[in-house]
Fold:
Amino acid sequence: MTMPHTLLIIEDEVLLGQELQRHFQREGWEVRLAASLAEARRLLFDAALEPAAVLSDMSLPDGNALDLLDAVREAGLAGEWVFVTGYGGVPDSVRALKLGALDFLEKPVDMARLTLVLNGAARTARAERRLADQTAGERRRYEPDAYAGESAAAREAREMLARLADVPFSALLIGGETGTGKGLAARILHYAGSRRRGPLVEVNCAALPRELIEGELFGHEAGAFTGAKGMRRGLVEQASGGTLFLDEIGELPLDLQAKLLRVIEDGQIRRLGGERALPVDVRFVAASNRDLEAESRAGAFRADLFHRLSVFRLVLPPLRARIEDVRQLVPLFVREFNAKAGKRVSRIGEPVWSQLLAHDWPGNVRELRNVVERCVLFADDETFPARWLQLGAAPAGMAAPGEGVWLPLDGSLSLEDMERRLVEAALAQADGNVTGAARLLKSTRETLRYRVEKFGLGKG
Structure:
């Protein structure tokens, strides 16, 4: 451990309590010992002790520790709980797990296993503390008004976000082109909604390697696979009580789509290598820039998961459909990058506005933000520099129109958007002939026809 975490041990057997205290102090924990529920309650509520983990006997002289855990959860106090007992039965273990206990062990306790469980609790506590700090700061930033713009399309999207924030939905799908603000919408739905006190866990499905994504999402037990030395809560469990944002959900493999659907439907999760189902209370927000409805019809995305997610659906407009909002968005971004870079840009001339408003913004708001960032960082004084806009034409040395296609590598286009542009350019040069376009791209007619249909580029 990089820094000591506090462990509260609740144990009325004096010798066992002292043995556990010495052991975990050697393991690097700061240990507090309570011999009764009354003493533990005083430490937790009166002395405001914030343990990363609580190791508790189930039955104590003054009551059942589950009642204390219930009170702790009701008060919104953090910390992982592990129970040990010599008498506990199935009802107690079920109640413990429903209250969010990390594990439930029987006496005599295997000290090696207990150490692994609590080391896992320390890792989870670090992650949850970082998440709590982030949540406190961002709670103030994400209201529906954070989706800026006065166009009819922006007002409609903002009104829909406000309405959805008040709806207790279990799953929702956000659509829209790359760069339209799907991540911002997900944060607004979380922080403006009833789950704002819970965690928001974000995961980009396209960024996780296939061999790791199942363990990352659903967690694993110790020994579930090579290298799994301890138990780990997955991202779904970490989001319990809050929201899990699954960006690029179209990249999720089909077998994991089926497992995700079961979690949404049943409200339960089973870790890799685990034998029992664990209850979770998660709101799922998924996003994709792909046409998942078409992909579900083609068998590339599970139709049952698509229909479950799209009971509530929000499609964000491209920037070209609300181009007038550029006049409101640019000053927002200028202020943001002025603050970050210590700049003083404040004057934006009409030639700049003319270029900004004439551009079609294929990368949407993300592209606009990137352009403003570049211009502010390169500004020499208080004037917004037009020379760094670089809109509407390829830089010197790049292919001219009709000879190729320029693809900006500034984050404004996804790989799929780039592929679409290549196909469009090849079709244009081949006068719409799929066979000719395939020849230009050194591909087969069948492969290109699939992409033409995928991108809705018409018949070849």
Residues 393-402 have pLDDT under 50 and may be disordered. The chain is about 45% helix and 10% strand.
